[in-house]
């Protein structure tokens, strides 16, 4: 049953230029590690020219020396045993005296230039620092801060200056009370004041004599031929004894 199939398997031949074969070859080339590192291997076979004084070599050597523990402790190993008899340099009298003298000397040398030039300062009058100090002194000075109205620091005909001057005149207590200065020291009577006039008007309104007019003060003339007057005269004549 399988004899014919086994014989056919040995006789099948696939063309090398079919799409499946080409695709398989391309995939094999893409995933091949040998082809991936082929360029690197060929570059290694060519060799390289690196001089001993090249910048990368010097950088690598400097980094190695800095990172080396032996180079880091080399100075310390050489100085071991020099301080015999003292556990530390601070307890050595000579070293302490030398350090103290060095500190004093450094302080004297540090202040030498300042002491020499302390009385020999020459600053130009138009220096920036001097101008800034003058401007600051002008700002904080009470004399320059309080200026009279006639001492203008800008053009007097500017609109903002005119407006500021008007506002200052309105707010000034001296200008506000200047029309009352002529009254200072002059005697004054209460007659004619507002309170007195108001009291008089209130008295007139509450006065009963002025509010009610008496009958005898009214000018009245009776009519003689009115019916009431004629009737009254007739009754008076009839009742008269004469």
UniProtKB/TrEMBL annotation:
Pfam families: Nebulin. GO terms for cellular component: Z disc. It comes from the Eukaryota. GO terms for molecular function: actin filament binding. InterPro entries: NEBU/NEBL, Nebulin-like, Nebulin_repeat. GO terms for biological process: cardiac muscle thin filament assembly. Keywords: Actin-binding, Repeat. Transmembrane segments: none annotated. PANTHER family: NEBULIN (PTHR11039:SF37). This is NEBU protein. It comes from Myiagra hebetior. The lineage of its organism: Eukaryota, Metazoa, Chordata, Craniata, Vertebrata.
